[in-house]
Each structure stands twice: as C-alpha cells, then as structure tokens.
C-alpha cells in the first residue's frame, strides 16, 4: 500500500500549523473512541484523526435505537456517550507515536466546561482541539450553544485563553446564517472552522406509528447532506479568513475535490466509513493525486477556494 504519510508531497497540507500528509481526516464520532481504533484509522491512510466528543463527566448516552439507516444517509441520536475526559486522557496517552495529528473533540455544558476538558486533553497529548458547537440532539450543549453567536464567542475565547494548541470550531448547519457563526468563532480566535455537523431530522416507523429513534430527533449525515455542506463551506469561505475543514457526505475523491473548490483546506469523513470501511481514505487520496496531476496542479493547496475565483 502506498504510504500517504511519506510519499505523496502533492497531497501534503497544513492547518493552523498542523502538518498533515494528506487532507483527509476522520470525523468525530466514528471509530474515534479508543486508541486502538484511532491507530487503525491512521494506518489506513488518514491525514489526521478526530476523536469521539468527550465531556468532563462520563455519560452513557441515549437508550437504543440510536442509529438508523435512511435513504442516502444515517440518522443518529447517540447522545454523546463517553467515558469522561479524565478516563479518556489515559487512552490518548497511548497515541504519542501516531505520526499524524491527533485532534481531540471536547464538549461542555458551559464555556468553563469546554475549557477545562480542552486543558486536560492537551495535557494528555492532543495536537489540536475541536469544539463541537453543533450536536443537534443533546440538551444544554452542542447546537443549543452553537446556534448563538455570542455563546460561540464565549466558548472559543475561553478555550483559546486556556490552551496553547490550535482550536477548531465545529459549526451547526441548523441555523439561518452559518457565516454569522463562523464570523463569531473567527473573531474569538478560532484557528479553523469545521463544517458541518449533522442536520436535525427524524424518521417514523409506519408499522408501530412511532418515531424510530428513542430520542425521537436525531442528526442526519451522509450523502443526503452533501450539497448543504458544500453550500455552507462556500458561504463560510467568503465570510472568514481562517482555514475551513469540510465535512458532510464525503465518500469519493470527487466529493473531496468539490469541498476543496468551495473552500475547504481539508475534509473529514464519517458516515462513509460506517457504510464502506476504512479503505475510503486511500481511495480518496489515490483519486485526488490523479486529479491534481491531470489538471497540472503542483499541490492540493492550489485548488482550495478555486470555485470563488472563476
Ligand atoms: C454515529 C455518529 C456519531 C457522531 N458523533 C459525533 C460526535 O461525537 N461529535 C461530533 O462533533 N460529531 C459527531 N458526528 C457528526 C460527524 O462528525 C459529522 O459531522 C457528520 O456525520 C457529517 O459527516 P458525514 O456525512 O461524513 O458523516 C457523528 C456522526 C455520526 C453518524
């Protein structure tokens, strides 16, 4: 297997000082809850990994059913189950030899909780912190905080003041103007924007006549949300001057190129892994290389935001 960690300078990129061998990343919440799984993802060719979101205290999440496959996507309301940042810190310490950047996703129910969890994650070896200001189905955190630009500013400012690593603000598409949220995050010092998290949605079983998810509402991901994500990246690119990490329905190298043309410097992949396995990183990198060479580009950085210049 081609080693994308060494042999492909055309794909090498950088986000806020983090050097990545290629622009693909594992999205938060898929395979990111243990050191062994994160190592497996790194070995499969990802350019960086993001962990499952972790809060200060352990949580068991919602009862089943928490995940359902729908047309062109997945609908989940898992409820942010996690072991708590203190226990997770022990897990992260095993990842010092990962060879690619380790981004730890931390959440809280107040700006202070986000900041405390971020500090502990950095002490344990996180290379960057992602703030999920965007989970659409847990009360008191996620999009409940992230739909309010003032709260976005407070969280980002406090976290930035507490740690000395890059901070990525992960935004929700469940808002009228995602560019306003991006401006708020950037003005508070975010080093990059991750967009998008899932879209609030639901499914009803016509035999039981009841909502399928135990939580009733969940977040939609996968191919169904890709055009919404591309639109969000395009709008954010026009609004702020910091790098964007694109996410939402990416499965093929063509999807990755589309996100980068809209303005993403890197792309995260979530649902496609659940549906197709870990070979997705290698197939995206292979296709991206061939595309760049065919078009005469010398670096993947040259296509970022190109759709705005035409
Ligand atoms: C099962 C599942 C669990 C997720 N858990 C998290 C999470 O803990 N934190 C987070 O920021 N996003 C979480 N997400 C959202 C993904 O990181 C991503 O933003 C979203 O799924 C869109 O990308 P995709 O279409 O490639 O899956 C989760 C998504 C799924 C499908």
Descriptive report:
The chain has 310 residues and is α/β, with parallel strands linked by helices. The chain has a single domain (9-62, 79-202, 222-308), classed as TIM Barrel (Alpha-Beta Barrel), CATH 3.20.20.70. It is 34% helix and 19% strand. The protein has ten helices and 16 strands. The longest helix is centred in the C-terminal third of the chain and has 17 residues, at 279-295. 53% of the residues are buried. The mean pLDDT is 94. Flavin mononucleotide (FMN) is lined by residues 27-30, 52-53, 67, 74, 76, 78, 80, 105, 132, 135, 170, 197-198, 221-222, 225, 247-250, 269-272.
SSE inventory with pairings:
Layout: E1 13-15, E2 18-20, E3 24-26, H1 35-43, E4 48-50, E5 67-70, E6 73-76, H2 85-92, E7 102-105, H3 111-123, E8 128-132, H4 143-146, H5 149-162, E9 167-170, H6 178-187, E10 192-195, E11 199-201, E12 204-205, E13 210-211, E14 218-221, H7 226-239, E15 244-247, H8 253-262, E16 264-269, H9 271-276, H10 279-295
Parallel strand pairs: 3-4, 3-16, 4-7, 7-8, 8-9, 9-10, 10-15, 15-16
Antiparallel strand pairs: 1-2, 5-6, 6-14, 11-14, 12-13
Helix pairs in contact: 2-3, 3-5, 5-6, 6-7, 7-8, 8-10
The chain binds flavin mononucleotide.
């Amino acid at each position: 297997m081609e080693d994308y960690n060494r042999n492909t300078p055309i794909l090498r990129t950088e986000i806020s000082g983090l050097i990545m061998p290629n622009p693909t990343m594992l999205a938060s919440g898929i395979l990111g809850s243990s050191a062994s799984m994160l190592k497996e993802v790194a070995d499969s060719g990802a350019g960086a990994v993001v962990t499952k979101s972790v809060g200060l205290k352990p949580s068991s999440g919602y009862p089943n059913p928490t995940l359902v496959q729908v047309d062109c996507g997945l609908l989940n309301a898992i409820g942010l189950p996690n072991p708590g940042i203190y226990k997770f810190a022990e897990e992260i310490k095993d990842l010092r030899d990962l060879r690619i950047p380790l981004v730890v996703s931390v959440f809280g129910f107040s700006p202070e909780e986000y900041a405390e969890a971020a500090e502990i994650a950095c002490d344990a070896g996180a290379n960057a912190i992602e703030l999920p200001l965007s989970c659409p189905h847990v009360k008191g955190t996620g999009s409940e905080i992230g739909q309010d630009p003032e709260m976005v500013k407070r969280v980002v400012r406090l976290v930035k003041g507490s740690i000395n690593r890059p901070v990525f603000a992960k935004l929700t598409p469940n808002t009228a103007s995602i560019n306003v949220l991006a401006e708020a995050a950037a003005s508070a010092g975010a080093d990059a924007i991750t967009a998008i998290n899932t879209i609030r949605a639901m499914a009803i079983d016509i035999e039981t006549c009841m909502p399928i998810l135990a939580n009733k509402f969940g977040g939609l991901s996968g191919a169904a949300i890709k055009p919404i994500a591309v639109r969000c990246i395009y709008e954010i690119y026009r609004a702020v001057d910091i790098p964007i990490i694109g996410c939402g329905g990416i499965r093929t190298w063509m999807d990755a190129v589309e996100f980068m043309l809209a303005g993403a410097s890197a792309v995260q992949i979530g649902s496609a892994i659940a549906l197709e396995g870990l070979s997705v990183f290698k197939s995206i990198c292979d296709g991206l290389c061939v595309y760049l060479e065919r078009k005469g580009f010398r670096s993947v950085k040259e296509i970022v935001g190109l759709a705005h210049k035409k």
